[in-house]
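Researcher: Quick test of sequence recovery. Tokens follow.
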């Protein structure tokens, strides 16, 4: 495989074939993210992609899923992207699901009809980074798109029949807008109604603008108990028809896996118990990205 730069994939794609079709992220300006810093975004050539698919056809026959790396595969034009999926279907007929990262910018470029076409060609799940449903927080961290953009694009993915997994980031708004961030994020998640939500806890990475703001005192990182309170408020304002809400990433202080709405009250009780000190939190030494 012709891998370049930092390879990033969702935890749930750990056993998938990783086919790198882009390098880096087309936006790459979020102040909290260090994943692709220093990498110039590019779309790989059809020749390289075809070679890697051919390689996978020989050496990846036990893997039933495939993930298109890196952070922005959906930015590829509709003139090229279906051809990649057709090559995957032809050369890797045992693959039963293809997953991608996507953001509001790339999804805006795809019509509902085009997303339905991708669904027919094997696109089974889209991972979208919402981070926050609060427009002021989104603007503060230089995230592309506002809350209504996120709702529109998320709903479009769902309408196309593609599974949607959304990531949100606890602590991103700091202490001043923590409650607003939690409530508005719950509102946006409810409006989109994804199958999966993954809540991560903010970890400041040296070299990022947000870390610099923390060092200079412009940004305050909330305490673990405040993170949990924010999570509880977010879940209380999240109404999914039938979805899984995860907070079991390595960055989180309290591992949670809840099916909403069924497990909402039990989950909120567990969070309150942790805030009250009745449940031990994960030590800082065991947290990570």
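Model:
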């Amino acid at each position: 495989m012709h891998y370049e730069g930092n390879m990033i994939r969702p935890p749930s794609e750990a056993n998938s074939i990783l086919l790198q079709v882009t390098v880096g992220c087309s936006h790459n300006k979020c102040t909290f993210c260090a994943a692709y810093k220093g990498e110039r975004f590019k779309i790989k050539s059809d020749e390289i992609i075809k070679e890697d698919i051919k390689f996978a056809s020989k050496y990846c026959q036990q893997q039933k899923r495939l993930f298109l790396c890196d952070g922005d595969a959906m930015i590829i034009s509709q003139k090229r992207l279906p051809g990649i999926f057709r090559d995957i279907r032809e050369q890797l007929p045992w693959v039963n699901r293809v997953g991608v990262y996507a953001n509001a910018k790339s999804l805006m470029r795809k019509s509902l009809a085009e997303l339905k076409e991708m669904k027919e060609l094997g696109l089974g799940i889209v991972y979208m980074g919402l981070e926050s449903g609060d427009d002021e927080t989104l603007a503060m961290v230089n995230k592309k798109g506002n809350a209504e953009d996120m709702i529109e694009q998320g709903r479009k993915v769902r309408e196309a029949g593609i599974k949607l997994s959304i990531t949100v980031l606890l602590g991103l708004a700091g202490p001043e807008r923590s409650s607003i961030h939690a409530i508005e994020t719950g509102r946006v998640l409810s409006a989109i109604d994804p199958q999966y939500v993954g809540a991560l806890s903010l970890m400041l990475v040296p070299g990022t603008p947000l870390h610099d703001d923390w060092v200079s005192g412009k940004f305050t990182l909330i305490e673990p108990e405040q993170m949990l309170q924010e999570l509880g408020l977010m879940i209380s304002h999240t109404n999914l028809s039938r979805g899984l809400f995860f907070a079991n990433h390595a960055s989180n202080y309290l591992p949670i896996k809840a099916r909403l709405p069924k497990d909402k009250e039990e989950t909120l009780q567990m969070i309150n118990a942790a805030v009250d000190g009745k449940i031990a939190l994960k030590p800082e030494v065991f947290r990570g990205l």
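Residues 22 and 43 are 4 Å apart (CA to CA).
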